[in-house]
C-alpha cells in the first residue's frame, strides 16, 4: 500500500475489501463510519484503496484463468453427455456459444483499439 496512509487506514482498507457494507467494515476495523467516509474522500487513502482493490482483482482474474480450461471441459462433458438432461445440455451449449461470441467480440474490439491507437500515434507525429 502507498506509504501515505497509517496502519489504522490499512486495516480499514482490508475491512472494506472483506465486508459488503461500510458499516460492517467500520465494526470490524473499530473505526467509525463517519471517519471511513471522510477517508474515502482523501486522495492518499482513495489511491491506496484503489491500488489494493486492483491487486485483489488481478489475483481473482488469475485464479479464474487457472480454472477456465477445467470449466470449458466440464461444459463440454455436459453438452456431449447423452445421459444428461436436455436442459443441462442446452445450458452448457448456450454457455459455450456465449463465451465464444464474447471472446470474438473482445478480440475484435482489441484489434480495433490497437488500430485506433496506431492511427492516433501516426497523426500525432505528423502534426
From TrEMBL:
It comes from the Bacteria. Residues 99-126 form a coiled coil. Keywords: Coiled coil, DNA-binding. GO terms for molecular function: DNA binding. Gene3D superfamilies: Homeodomain-like. The keyword Coiled coil applies. This is DNA-binding MurR/RpiR family transcriptional regulator. It comes from Ammoniphilus resinae. The lineage of its organism: Bacteria, Bacillati, Bacillota, Bacilli, Bacillales.
